[in-house]
Specification:
The chain contains 11 helices and 10 strands. The protein has helices at about 5-10, 40-45, 55-60, 95-100, 120-135, 155-170, 185-190, 210-220, 230-235, 240-250, 255-265; strands at about 20-25, 50-55, 70-75, 75-80, 90, 105-110, 140-145, 175, 200, 225-230.
Length: about 270
């Protein structure tokens, strides 16, 4: 990786080469609550997290709040199936020019292996990576088999293929789901077969602090480089505290019980 990309990735990957990222990019994909005041939310979480994933509008409107954090611009729109609308999966919107315009440090694009629009999705993701090489902008590829919100398809085999495919395309970091029903050893094999850092997403709000923290603890024990957890943070009853607890697991090697104790602090 070139020096320019390394410098920008250091905004996310700290000295321990681990990261806590909070995605706030859901507003173009699904109806959400909890992000009504994005600048205030960013400011409340910033003491505990290393970076944010945002759409262009938030990146521009909340530039001051994002000032000292890693900023990853979502350059595509990822769409779940809705009613009778055709399932397009995801599609490119932006690129390195917009990354520069909003002061971001990286860009994120989806990759849906096995999706009905796989050919176009792979092509657009590869184009984003090629543009990132030329502009020295790191690309975090978020990869999920078949599409978003399909946990039954997030098997060890499917996630393993998706992660390796993203790395093979040239991703600088791969973001993916912890495979459904998997253990630490299962995910370790996936991480070890990937030659770039792997970070784990949180998915839909669990409403279960122990389950969330255990999933993150398992991912870190398997060799993950960190997390990108959105709804399980900003839809939590106490977003700053759960962010602090997650950061303790990622950066301080806290146990699940130690992280849960943070949530009990006044």
């Amino acid at each position: 990786m070139n020096r320019g990309k390394n410098s920008k990735l250091s905004q996310f990957l700290q000295k321990d080469r681990k990261t806590v990222i909070v995605p706030l990019d859901h507003g173009t994909a699904i109806p959400v609550t909890g992000m009504e005041s994005p600048a205030a939310l960013i400011e409340s979480l910033s003491p505990h997290v290393d970076g944010f994933v945002v759409n262009l509008g938030v990146a521009m409107a909340c530039r001051d709040a994002l000032d000292d954090k890693g900023v990853c611009l979502r350059i595509d729109c990822y769409k779940p199936v809705h009613g009778e609308n055709p399932d397009e999966g995801c599609y490119r919107l932006y690129g390195p020019d917009e990354v520069e315009a909003c002061g971001a440090h990286a860009m994120m694009n989806m990759l849906y292996p096995h999706h009905r629009n796989e050919a176009e999705i792979f092509r657009e993701c590869a184009e984003a990576i090629a543009e990132g090489i030329e502009a020295e902008v790191p690309v975090i590829v978020e990869t999920l088999p078949y599409g978003i919100g399909r946990p039954k398809d997030y098997t060890v085999e499917n996630i393993g293929f998706a992660v390796r495919a993203a790395a093979e395309l040239g991703a600088d970091i791969v973001k993916t789901a912890f495979p459904t029903g998997a253990g630490v050893d299962d995910f370790r094999r996936i991480v070890e077969s990937c030659f770039v850092p792997v970070i784990v997403l949180g998915g839909a709000a669990m409403g279960d602090d122990h389950a969330l923290l255990k999933m993150v603890r398992d991912a870190m024990d398997a060799g993950a480089a960190g997390i990108a957890v959105g709804r399980n943070v900003w839809q939590h009853a106490n977003p700053p505290k759960i962010a602090e607890a997650l950061a303790a697991v990622v950066h301080e090697n806290a146990s699940v019980d130690e992280a849960l104790s943070i949530l009990q602090e006044v």
